[in-house]
Amino acid sequence: MRLVALVWRNMLHRKTLSLLTILSVTITAALVVFLLLCSEGLEQGAEKGYGPFEVTIGAKGSATQLALNTYYHVGAPTGNVPFSLLSQLQKDESVDRAYAMTTGDNYNGFPIVGIEPGYFASRYGTEKQMAEGKMYGKLGETIVGSHIASSLGLHIGDKFQGAHGLIKGLEEAEGEDHEGDSAEEEHHHNFTYTVVGILPPLFTSDDRAVFTTLDYAWAVHEGQDAEHREVTSILIKPKTLLGAQSIKTKYGQINNVQAIYTSKAVADVVNVIDKGTGALTVVTIICILLAAGTILLSLVAAVNERKKDVALLRLIGKSKGFIWSSLIGEGLLLTVIGLVLGMLAGHLGGYLSREAVFEYTGLQLQSFQFMQGEWLLIGGTLGIGILASAGPALQAYRVDPLQLFKS
């Protein structure tokens, strides 16, 4: 206890410099933890983002755009494909399950998605039951994701009207030339949705979507007869990997239709994001070096003040281990305090920002999950603290104690 008391007293003796050192370590650790949370959320989102649907069919265009719109409800669809494709796919021997999806409307900025109810059992399993209410079964009935329910305060039995477009107010922001859309907007305002169920937290982008029957789009956007109905995309769960290749080859040859490997399209997006986070990694490394430098400067500044203390300890016969522990202990204590505060701040920051991050990026931050990368953070930070403390400690220890007390 005497050693701990000595280290604590030395640290408090230089309050301002000690506080700055702790603050630099805290900020660095918090930044690293937050980046780890985002990286973990990205990996989990990519892993769980599309479920078992290894092939996706949509209109010609960007494969990543098709995947993002279909599974992450981000951006605009690439276009529409004939609804008749669905019946062909359901009869195909290579297909286990196939579900058509219609999108294009929103409620308060959240996408309205039309899809058959069987999609949820295929993607999440039968154990993922409704948190409240029941599954939709007829036109106008909807279920809402857990994020929407909590954000907008929706309950079973609530009614609402949707709006045209994927983002609330998009048409108004684009200009005034929308006379042709007035009739369509009137159809939207006259069409009422009723909440019949609320989904449990699924930890995917489906938490921030409204789901309803496939035919909602045809009812709202009048003018599509049964023969020429179109859908935004078709999600396909193949029976085998060879079956996935067969489906992609066969249906990718149809005019104005593309068939993509979902995993490849998602991987392309993740790779682009990983390159973008490289800049953040550089910033993090700079912060780590600055924190190490701050610890070093803090201890160097203390060397002259503590030379006589060290000399006195040596003269009264304190062991080398005690003296070295007192010298390195101060830097290590500053490091540990900053590290603990930083890790707590990083997780707390993730918790406080989780709603905003999910709403704008679709990333689910498991804010209080301990990640593997944190072991590396702990080991690396403590290592830096010890190395930064060793130099000043050696300098102080090597001073001749008798020289310091000569008048």
Distance between the termini: 34 Å
Query: Cα-atom Rg, whole angstroms?
Result: 30 Å
Q: What is the structural class?
A: alpha+beta
Approximately what portion of the residues adopt beta-strand conformation?
5-15%
**Average pLDDT across residues?**
79
Shape: elongated
Number of helices: 14
Task: Give the helix proportion (percent range).
Answer: 55-70%
**How many DSSP-defined strands?**
13
Q: Poorly predicted ranges (pLDDT <50, ≥5 residues)?
A: 169-180
Reading the helices and strands in chain order gives HHEHEHEEHEEHEEHHEEHEEHEHHHH
- Largest beta-sheet characterization: 11 strands, mixed
Structure description:
This protein is α+β, with helices and mostly antiparallel strands and 407 residues long. The strands form 2 sheets. Strands 1, 3, 4, 5, 6, 7, 8, 9, 10, 12 and 13 form an 11-stranded mixed β-sheet that branches. The protein has a two-stranded antiparallel sheet with strand order 2-11. Helix 2 runs antiparallel to helix 11. The longest helix has 54 residues. The two termini are 34 Å apart. About 3% of the residues have low confidence.
Summarize this entry quickly.
The chain has helices at 2-13, 15-48, 63-71, 84-91, 118-124, 146-152, 170-174, 182-190, 216-220, 241-251, 262-315, 320-361, 372-397, 401-404, and strands at 55-59, 81-82, 95-107, 110-115, 132-133, 141-144, 159-161, 163-164, 192-198, 210-212, 230-231, 233-238, 257-261. The protein has 407 residues and is of the alpha+beta class.
Task: Give the topology, please.
Blueprint: H1 2-13, H2 15-48, E1 55-59, H3 63-71, E2 81-82, H4 84-91, E3 95-107, E4 110-115, H5 118-124, E5 132-133, E6 141-144, H6 146-152, E7 159-161, E8 163-164, H7 170-174, H8 182-190, E9 192-198, E10 210-212, H9 216-220, E11 230-231, E12 233-238, H10 241-251, E13 257-261, H11 262-315, H12 320-361, H13 372-397, H14 401-404
Parallel strand pairs: 4-10, 6-9
Antiparallel strand pairs: 1-12, 1-13, 2-11, 3-4, 3-8, 3-12, 5-9, 6-10, 7-9
